[in-house]
Amino acid sequence: MKNADLLKIAKTYGNPVYVYDSEKIISQFNRLTNAFKGVKRLRLNYAAKALSNISILRLMNSLGSGLDTVSIQEVQLGLMAGFKPESIIYTPNGVSLEEIEEAAKLGVQINIDNLSVLEQFGSKHPDIPVCIRINPHVMAGGNSNISVGHIDSKFGISIHQIPHLLRIVELTQMNINGIHMHTGSDILDIDVFLYASEILFETAKNFKNLDFIDFGSGFKVPYKEGDIETNVEELGKKLTDRFNTFCKEYGKELTLAFEPGKFLVSEAGYFLAKVNVVKQTTSTVFASVDSGFNHLIRPMLYGANHTIENISNPQGRERYYSVVGYICETDTFGNNRRINEISEGDILCFKNAGAYCFTMASNYNSRFRPPEVLWHNGKAILIRERESFDDLVRNQVDVKDLFTTAKEEIAVK
């Protein structure tokens, strides 16, 4: 997208605003598909938690993607967006048996990650196919909060609990049709991924009726110029060869599944905010924008580095700024960033805003969540309206009749 397009969107829909480029989403989907073209049966299940706007889900469905969901609400969104139940995998963590049963009634693929629920579900519903999420005890990911396959993680059934797992399967006679893992996000070293894959292959040998092996995702995308990214082409070549060899050994053509989220939508997203104040202190020049971590929490939560550009003055002299928000606590998007000279009223563009930005947004400080705009075939299409004050109070119950207003005492001289 060009700066002129983004500035026009900001003028039309106001600030702040999220913008998503469909062309980039499509190219990322095709890139990953091509990396594994040597696999006879490939399934890419888009991770809805990254960006769950129903228009984005419809776009993914049109590409032939499946859907990775982590809540019953995401399952319902997927069905509303047109996904067939059998193309949706439901991988919750720590939810009730009742929610899992609700998802099962909708006909989606169930993925269970703990022995307690596995035993309960298998005892009650032995005929419903179940995938099992394994914890391979591999530390991978760009931040401890997004590394989910290590020994202290709450996710998955430990590989050291395989004997217990097999006993449950034998006693309940349940149908295990898939094996799954997810080691974390922002994986750089494909050898770590391949190592974890070998653990998954070894585990899969214990089950005779598998239809698929799900390797999760976690592919890293570049967040700044010169940044490292996962080499999906190299991973595709190496894992394809190993997967095809395993299928021959297993005696059955299995489906290779992935659950890309950030890889598909992160680089497609732009977040636009207007500069309210340029504030010079004794040590820092702050550029304060009309947004905060209520709209883009990743820098404060993960230390994520989002490239920030001044699209109102792209040719201006570069200076150092700390870009901050309007939330009433420390609220920093980037410290001492080299950005083209900023004036009050300029529009700043935060890149890589497609994944885990709107979906993690909140109404903190009673601020409204921004609109979302899809840039598709050279046109800007509104896919979510900006919230209003009515939205903010819609579900609140005003108990004003319970209280009386304190009467002001008048002082008598």
Write the SSE topology.
Layout: H1 3-13, E1 17-21, H2 22-35, E2 42-47, H3 54-62, E3 66-69, H4 72-80, E4 88-90, H5 97-105, E5 109-112, H6 115-124, E6 130-135, E7 157-158, H7 162-172, E8 176-180, H8 190-204, E9 212-214, H9 232-250, E10 255-258, H10 262-265, E11 269-280, E12 285-289, H11 298-302, E13 308-310, E14 318-324, E15 332-340, E16 347-351, E17 372-376, E18 379-384, H12 389-393
Parallel strand pairs: 1-17, 2-3, 2-10, 3-4, 4-5, 5-6, 6-7, 6-8, 8-9, 9-10, 12-14
Antiparallel strand pairs: 1-11, 11-12, 11-16, 13-16, 14-15, 17-18
Helix pairs in contact: 2-9, 6-7, 8-9
Report the helical percentage: 25-40%
Termini separation comes to 70 Å
Q: How much β-strand is present in the residues?
A: 15-25%
Biggest sheet descriptor: 9 strands, mixed
Shape: globular
For the record, the count of structural domains works out to: 2
String of helices and strands: HEHEHEHEHEHEEHEHEHEHEEHEEEEEEH
Reported CATH architecture of the largest domain: Alpha-Beta Barrel
Number of beta-strand segments: 18
Mean pLDDT: 93
Q: Could you state the CATH homologous superfamily of the largest domain?
A: Alanine racemase
CATH topology-level name of the largest domain: TIM Barrel
Domain Orn/DAP/Arg decarboxylase 2 C-terminal: 18-354
Pfam families: Orn_Arg_deC_N, Orn_DAP_Arg_deC
Function: Specifically catalyzes the decarboxylation of meso-diaminopimelate (meso-DAP) to L-lysine.
Pathway: Amino-acid biosynthesis; L-lysine biosynthesis via DAP pathway; L-lysine from DL-2,6-diaminopimelate: step 1/1
